[in-house]
Each structure stands twice: as structure tokens, then as C-alpha cells.
Amino acid sequence: MFDSLTKSLGQVFNKLKGRGILSEEMVDEALREVKIALLEADVALPVVKSFMTFIKERAVGQDIIRSVQPAQQVIKIVNDALVEKLGADNTQLAYSAVSPSVYVLAGLQGAGKTTSCAKLARYLKKQGKKVLMASADIYRPAAQLQLQQLADAAQIDCLPIVEGQTPLQIAQRAVQTARQNATDVVLIDTAGRLHVDEDMMQEIEQLVQAVKATETLLVLDALTGQDAVHIAEQFGSRLPLTGLILTRVDGDARGGAALSMRQMTGQPIKFLGVGEKTDALEPFDAKRIAGRILDMGDVVGLVETAMEKINAAEAQKQAERMMSGRFDLNDMLAQLRQIKGLGDVKGIMMMIPGMAKFKEKIEQAPIDNSLFKRQEAIILSMTEKERRCPELLKASRKLRIAKGAGVTVNDVNRLLKQYEQMAQAMKQFKKMGPLGAMKMMKQMSSALKGNPLMNGGGWPPLKH
Fold it and tell me: Which among 419, 171, 450, 435 has a CA at the least distance from the CA of 323?
């Protein structure tokens, strides 16, 4: 998401870097290019105008022109504008004082409501909430069965299907069932249509009022661009919307809809659907999104992913062995499994600051989880003694291992070369000792402080 905008803004900021002091003409030229980048990213014109007003009020003046680090100051101003337009407030879900909280999902057919319902249920379950899903879509063939199957896969309760009930009756039964079972949240998936239908709107209006919905969330397909804004405005005129869920943002290279939504609809974006699996849902965070757009990465997201998917005890064990300088093929196998557990390697790489400019090369690179599976197979084809003592691996043993793993001897040699490089790095780390390690950590910390979006937004003060 935002690939084109990230690339365009990166080109603008690169022109500013290296200049000691910016003239007002340079700033004006940069702002014109920012405006073009926003328009090309399909951002709504009223939002672009508001965006540029925000930037000009802060950028065109003595503060930037005389600043010691003018390029960073411009980036900060654009960052602040992005955060404001994306909306940093009211992104958290609301909960009713008395359980259950009732969340109703609305939207057009094909926007991804049913899968978003399952994703949201899984997210809430991870937050420790007891969730009940219910499908009030009696029109689309097998819609109720689809939700039931998603619920079963995620091990989440789903309201049993009763033939002949109306959407209103289904919703009321769901709330009553939740009360009886001490359920925290009820998620109601409603029917969609190919266009805003009057009868359907009346039906969902009555449903929302009857269940006293805590949240009425509109599900929108980010790929529809500015049409998503118009759809949100139409639904917002009829329903008491409390927030938006944008789906398929991983396929939207421009991202104009997300940037336009908050200002054009007045509704906060609460979640982003970033894939097809039920764990591919991200709580919306304007600061993190702004960081991605400006190619500052998503360090917070990277850490969260690591904390969720990496075994802490195993990581601690690996760290202790690293500090001692010990490293054999069993350790390499453990590291491969940790990396494989993170999921899409290319997606993880894109969370690293500064990697957006290499997006095309990363996508073209032969990097995927199948590579780690092959490497894992090679190590598993070795005996325990061979893993502990890689120096035993001569030609005949390599041939046996290659056949056992279904790879070539060259593949085995490549893995062993990679192991040797890693083992050498571990030895160097041990030689550094505790003081050397501390020095390296301090250098890393200083590097992070130089990043204008790190250290709590610790920007250098403006100079007059």
C-alpha cells in the first residue's frame, strides 16, 4: 500500500538532502512535487488542498530555510500532515458498559465483510475477549455457512443457523445467546448489495437500532479508490457509523482512499485488511502508516510480529550461545525455524526503515519460505554428529545429504558456506567482549536517534 506515494515522496526528499540551507524557492518547488505525488496517489482534491495548506503554514518561512537540517524538517512537517489526515484519534474499538458489546459490519457485496468479521473475531480473541459471530446475510447463497466454516477454523463460537429467520431475528437471537453465555462481544455480519439499495438500507437501519450497536463498522475495499469515499458517504448518511475497516490494502499501490477517508467521511479507520488469512488484520495506527509512507519502516510492527511469533525461550538460548561464541548447525537450524515462523519474509523486510526504495528488487529476489524449507531439509538430512561437527562433511557425506534432502550438492555447499560466515561472525562477537558489545549497542542507539521518526519523534529543535 502507498507504494507510488512512497516512491514519489522519496524522490522529493532526496533532492533536499545534502543541501545546507534551503531557499524559499526550493521549498516551494518541493511542495509542488508533493502535491503532484498526492494527486497521482488518487488522494481526493479537497484533502490535497487541506494537506498543502497544513504544510505551507509550517514549511514556507524562516524556520525551515534557516534550519540546520532542513530536509529532516520538511520530512517532519509532511509526517505531521500525514498523521493529521489519516486521523490519529478514535481508532480504538468501544466497549459497552454492560456485556455484550455488539459490533455490526456493513458494506457492499464483495467488500470482504464476512472475512473481515472472522479476522476481527480472531483479533478480539487474542485480546482475551469471548466472541460470538452471527451471519444475518440470508440472501447470498451459503453466506451463513461460510461464516460458520471460518469460525470453526479459528475456533470461535458462531450462532447456529436457523432456517427461515429474518436478519433482525438472527441479530436479536445472537445478542440473547451472548447474554446467556457471558460473551463479551457479538459480531454481526450483514448482507451486502452491488449498490446502495433502499430496502436493504432500511433493513440494516432497523437491525442497528434494535440491537443497540456499540460499533457500526463499514467495510470498504481499498481497491475501489475514490469510489470507496462515495460509498462511505452514502452509508454514513443512513447509519450511525463509528468507524471503517479497509480491506485489500495490500493490493492498493496508491493508497489515496486511506488518506482521503478521515477528512471526507469524518469516520476513523479502525482496521486494515492486509491479506486473505484470518490473522491478516492490523489495528490502524496513523503514525505507523505515516512512517511506512515516508519509508521510515514499521519498527513497531516488526517488533510486534517478532514478539508474537518467535519463541522467547529459544531466542534467549540462542543469544547465550552467541555470546559464548558457540555456533553449530543445530543453532543454524533453530534460527532458520525462527525466521520461517515470522511468515512472509519479503513482507518482514519491507518493515525495515529505508527498504521501500528496494521494493522491486526484493519482490524479484528468489526469497521465500520454500528456501528456508530446503535449507531445513538439508540440515535434517545430517546426522547429529555432523551437525555438531560440520568439519566432518566431505564429498561422500555431502552427496548422501543432498540425496536425502532432494537437493544438489551445490545447494549443500551454499548452506555450509552460509554457516561458516555466520560462525565467523559469532566468533567476532565473542572477541568483542561485554564492553565491545555495549559499545556496538551504543552505536546502534545513536544511529536510531538520528532517525527523525525514532526516539519518540525526537526531532531536532527548529533554529532561528
Answer: 435
**Domains of the chain, CATH where assigned:** 3-86 (1.20.120.140), 101-295 (3.40.50.300), 302-434 (1.10.260.30)
pLDDT at residue number 314: 60
Q: What are the grid coordinates assigned to 308, written together?
A: 508474537
Write down the pLDDT at residue 12.
Answer: 81
- CA pair distance 441, 378, nearest whole angstrom: 34
pTM: 0.65
Q: Counting beta carbons within 10 angstroms of the beta carbon of residue 138, is it exposed (0 to 12), middle (13 to 18) or buried (19 or more)? A: middle
- The pLDDT of 127-131, averaged and rounded, is 95
pLDDT at residue 9, rounded to an integer: 81
b vs e for 391-418, b when ≥16 Cβ sit within 10 Å of the residue's Cβ? eebeeeebebbbeebebeeebbeebbee
Distance of alpha carbon 263 from alpha carbon 312, whole angstroms:
42
Give the bridge partners for 220, in sequence order: 246
Residue 282, phi then psi, degrees to nearest 5: -115, 130
Q: How far apart are CA 19 and CA 407, in angstroms?
A: 52
For residue 100, say if its preceding peptide bond is cis, omega within 30 degrees of 0: yes
